């Protein structure tokens, strides 16, 4: 492997032994360093022991630390490998003072049990290599994947969502041993390693003999979705051992460590077809101790050199190595596992220094460009073109900022799908869509023609949006992004989609933010919410049962929702928007009122035929205001930064005399 070191990394200390006693736990005689986990905001979860000898799980970003769990409370011990999602929720293994052991989640406010030994699981009730190494995984929807022993004997891989536990694989799958650290993606696909018999023998790790069965399995790497197992790698690929801590991304590609029959060790990726070799021990590298993969397909791993020492790589780029200088000393040891790489290519790791200090750190590429949050438009040079949504033949207008030449290969723009009002042509949103695009979005405005059945049973054909457009447009954007002939070739971030909507389209958008929800008129019947859907903001809309008038609860999970309403809207009354806002179950959420705007303040022209009220705010100002707050809400929400949202709505009224805002950016404090 050709090692490159062309990219410089900024190293941030998250926590070190100036404020902690240690980040290693060795109750069995084998010192286990924490395996820190990172989310897309750069927050890092880790295990550490304070100078008062209390162990804890913490989350830090380089500026502040939050305590998630501690042995000063109800816990007797805590696993060293937590996992962290983009909402700041951490999952971890722990033993309770009452003798139970299990998996938990926490956010610094509440602790929730996921699975413990009081039920059908049989966890070890004392700290052992088996349970301390056990690393659960959590995705952004709060689903947790974990390995556990069963009371009836044997082990298995399981998931838990909102108290519902599901078996992914156990002895009924023809597998008897399972790797310590499964992983899962936003679609809920779980990846794990498994074996048919325990691998015998021990292997030296950090000068200690560790059972090989804890580190490798002998059957293969597998994924599971919708109760079907798929083999990613097995002996048919020329491998005899498979690392116990594989990783997966949203495309379903798995990354893992494998050992061939000749003894060559390597890092591989695969999705059920041929494997790709990322690195191997045929050259200057001897072995590998951790691997992760992000949604862009970048693979990070910790490798040991033939000549001694180790380094963490992202692809072929060396990030940090023993012998490097850090905090005024020299790095002598490193740890990295399968939760340590985020979608910005930042890396979380533990390091020990020659002077005896150690710590948890984050490495960020110092040339990585991300459009910053700004209350000003990113670009005023907006282009547009028309395309066809291949899956249903809809015509769509696409608006996007013309990127400066120096940014064209480094910046990707998230998608904003505009769901039109009933019977409103896509061209009527050109001003609004252009202005939203100026905040750094590729805005897609389709004409979705279909036939609805009226209350009397008569068919009615016209422009009516529906939930399934979310998946159809997302797929089309993947095609456009890969098409060299497309004006938006290679500038679309197809992992991030936000929703815009007007009137009927806002109702369809609110339905689309919910999992497996079907409201007649807006539902396509087979809609599945994609993990790429990150936020939604809708103008002049409400969400209720059209027969009874009842305002329906909106179970939006972790998807921020903004509602914008004109104070003079007589079609979707402001009181109805307020009632809809009250029914949004999960913050962040906001209700923004634009003074003097009516129902058609979002379109190029007013519509006196369908809106009796005349606006007192001129049309251009109304459209710009609605577009600006739509763009700001999506941008702040899709950055996943709580502080940005807080600041935006705290000062919003003062910044804009035409709006008033109510918002909730954090959940109400509660005890599970």
Account of the 3D structure:
Strand 28 and strand 29 (276-280) form a beta hairpin. It contains eight helices and 48 strands. It is 12% helix and 39% strand. The strands form eleven sheets. It has a nine-stranded mixed beta sheet, with helices on both faces.
Shape call:
elongated
Classification by helices and strands: mainly beta
Major sheet: size, sense and barrel closure? Answer: 9 strands, mixed
Q: Calculate the mean pLDDT score and round it.
A: 86
Proportion of helical residues: 10-25%
Question: What are the defining features of this structure?
Answer:
672 residues; disordered N terminus; disordered C terminus; 12% helix; 9-stranded mixed sheet
């Amino acid at each position: 492997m050709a090692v490159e070191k062309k990219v410089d990394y900024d190293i941030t200390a998250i926590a070190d032994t100036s404020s902690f006693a240690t980040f290693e736990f060795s109750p069995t005689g084998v010192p286990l360093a924490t395996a820190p986990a990172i989310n897309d905001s750069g927050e890092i979860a880790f295990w550490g022991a304070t100078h008062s000898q209390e162990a804890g799980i913490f989350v830090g970003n380089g500026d502040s630390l939050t305590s998630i769990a501690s042995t000063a409370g109800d816990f007797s011990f805590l696993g060293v490998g937590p996992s962290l999602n983009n909402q700041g929720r951490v999952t971890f293994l722990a033993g309770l003072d009452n003798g139970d052991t299990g998996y938990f989640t926490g956010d610094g406010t509440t602790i929730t049990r996921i699975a413990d030994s009081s039920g059908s699981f049989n966890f070890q009730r004392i700290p052992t290599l088996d349970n301390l190494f056990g690393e659960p995984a959590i995705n952004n929807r709060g689903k947790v994947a974990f390995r556990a022993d069963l009371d009836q004997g044997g082990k298995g891989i399981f998931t838990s969502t909102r108290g519902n536990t599901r078996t992914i694989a156990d002895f009924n799958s023809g597998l008897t041993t399972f790797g310590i650290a499964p992983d899962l993606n936003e679609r809920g696909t779980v990846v794990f390693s498994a074996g048919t018999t325990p691998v015998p023998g021990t292997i030296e790790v950090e000068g200690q003999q560790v059972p090989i069965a804890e580190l490798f399995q002998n059957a293969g790497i597998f994924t599971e979705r919708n109760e079907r197992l798929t083999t990613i790698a097995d002996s048919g690929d020329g491998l005899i051992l498979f690392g116990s801590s594989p990783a997966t991304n949203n495309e379903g590609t798995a990354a893992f460590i494998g050992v061939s029959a000749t003894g060559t060790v390597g890092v591989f990726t695969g999705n059920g077809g041929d494997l790709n070799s990322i690195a191997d021990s045929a050259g200057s590298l001897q072995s590998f101790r951790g691997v992760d993969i992000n949604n862009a397909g970048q693979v990070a791993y910790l490798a040991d050199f033939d000549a001694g020492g180790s380094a963490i790589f992202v692809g072929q780029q060396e990030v940090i190595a023993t012998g490097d200088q850090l905090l005024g000393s020299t790095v002598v040891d490193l740890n990295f596992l399968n939760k340590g790489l985020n979608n910005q290519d930042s890396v979380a790791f533990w390091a020990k220094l020659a002077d005896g200090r150690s710590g948890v750190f984050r490495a960020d590429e110092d040339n990585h460009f991300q459009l910053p949050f700004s209350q000003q438009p990113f670009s005023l040079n907006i282009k547009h073109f028309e395309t066809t949504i291949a899956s249903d033949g809809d015509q769509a207008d696409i608006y996007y900022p013309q990127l400066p030449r120096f940014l064209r290969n480094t910046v990707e723009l998230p998608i904003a799908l505009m769901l039109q009002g009933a019977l409103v042509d896509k061209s009527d949103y050109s001003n609004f869509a252009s202005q939203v695009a100026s905040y750094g979005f590729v805005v897609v405005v389709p004409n979705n023609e279909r036939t609805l059945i009226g209350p009397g049973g008569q068919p009615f054909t016209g422009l009516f949006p529906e939930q399934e457009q979310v998946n159809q447009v997302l797929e089309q954007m993947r095609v456009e992004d890969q098409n060299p002939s497309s004006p938006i070739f290679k500038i679309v971030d197809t992992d991030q989609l936000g929703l815009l909507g007007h009137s009927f389209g806002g109702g369809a958008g609110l339905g689309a933010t919910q999992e497996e929800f079907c409201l007649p008129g807006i539902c396509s019947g087979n809609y599945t919410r994609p993990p790429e859907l990150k936020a939604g903001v809708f103008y002049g809309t409400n969400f209720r049962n059209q027969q009874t008038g009842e305002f329906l609860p909106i179970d939006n999970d972790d998807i921020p929702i903004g509602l914008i309403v004109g104070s003079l809207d007589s079609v979707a009354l402001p009181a109805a928007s307020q009632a809809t806002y009250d029914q949004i179950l999960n913050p962040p959420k906001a209700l923004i009122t634009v003074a003097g705007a009516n129902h058609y303040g979002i379109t190029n022209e007013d519509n006196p035929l369908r809106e009796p009220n005349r606006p007192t705010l001129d049309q251009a100002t109304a459209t710009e205001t609605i577009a600006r707050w739509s763009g700001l809400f999506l941008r702040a929400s899709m950055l996943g930064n709580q502080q940005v949202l807080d600041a935006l709505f705290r000062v919003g009224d003062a910044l804009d005399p035409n709006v008033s805002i109510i918002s909730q950016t954090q959940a109400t404090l509660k005890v599970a």
